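Deliverable D4.2, example record:
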Amino acid sequence: MELLFRDDAYLKSCEARVVAHDDEGIRLDRTVFYPTGGGQPGDSGALKLADGSRIRILEARQVAGHEDVVHGPADGAPRLSPGSRVRAEIDWPRRYKHMRFHTALHALCALIEGQVTGGNLNAQKARLDFNLPDAYPDKATLNQGLQAIVAADHAVSAVWITDQEMAARPDLVRTLSVKPPTGSGRLRLLEIEGIDLQPCGGTHLRSTVEIGDVLVSKIENKGRQNRRFTLRFAADQ
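Output generated by the structure prediction step:
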């Protein structure tokens, strides 16, 4: 399966061919749908059929054991025959919010010294948990830092390295309990130029300026050393 979102997160649709449609969902030969993973929700959207009708896709998810993406249709969707041509279309406004939040979480990592213990995001908010036994920045300081990164318009890009290169750079891994997947021969990193570099398979912006009005809305204690930082869009406060 060709995972088009890996090379271009801004693709909103693509032409594709149905490979299979079973009880798990619909598999295509190529897709723009990001599957649930890494704390980021799978894309929703639709498959447009040759007759102009549409099948609503509730969520994309990955098949256990390999990289294929399964598109989960709404109840009552007709079964598609292998070889059928469709146009896969994501819910772009929802995806773009995911991209803004995900990139903002990487920026937040650059402002907080500590191992990441967890995190997730949706279209309304995002969070990262850190192992922070000592003092940490307050909301005002973090929001000032975030807006400085946004205003500086840092380039954001994906970088691929080999498993061997990753093994030689353990400092790139910020997560405490979840290690980046290896074994395929290469690994994808997300780089915010001059700010952050770490393994990540999610969808991101091209520049930090697109993050916009994201801010730290809450800091919580979630254990003796676990601190949770929640991001929201300023317009939603």
